[in-house]
Input
Amino acid sequence: MLSRLRHVLGAGALLCAMPLTNIHAQSFPVAINEVMFAPVKPEPEWIELLNTTSDSVHLAGWLLTVHGHASVPIPDSSAWLAPDSMVILSANDTALAQIRNIPLDRIIRIAVPALNNSGSAISLRDTMGTLMDSMNYDGNWIKADGISIERSDANRSGLDPGNWEACQDPSGATILRPNSIRQRDHDLAI
Output
């Protein structure tokens, strides 16, 4: 009967009838990679996104949600994320660029809702409403303000607390650089 149904409906129709819950379970094409939820003033809060694919991704219209706040769309201006690269979401792009000495064109200005210093949940959805990534953080993961939290493996769930740690870089963050706690394929230290 299955082969007859395939013949009548075609293979694509069978895929539509399958449950969609696990499509992105182990695939995070755009991952929430680093979060500064308790910066030292005047630095603004920010969220770093990582494109894990070999294709550019147009982020315009994607929705950022911080628990307890309305979703905020990513604006159309400069919303392209190049393959295997990072971009920052922040409400104050100019100040962040000056404080962290990073290029202004690598920051997307978006009204990022206030990030709760005791902890919260963040999610990212594409223009179709598909959940691309989500994470929960706990304020106790950092010992002092001015330290970001970093994801160790972009291919593991952001909801896994074991996939996040406080930044170990002396500057307190690795904004637009590889995370200090990232899993490496080879450890060359002797």
About this structure: Residues 2-9 form the longest helix (8 residues). The two ends are 60 Å apart (CA to CA). The chain is about 10% helix and 25% strand. Helices lie at 2-9, 11-17, 93-100.
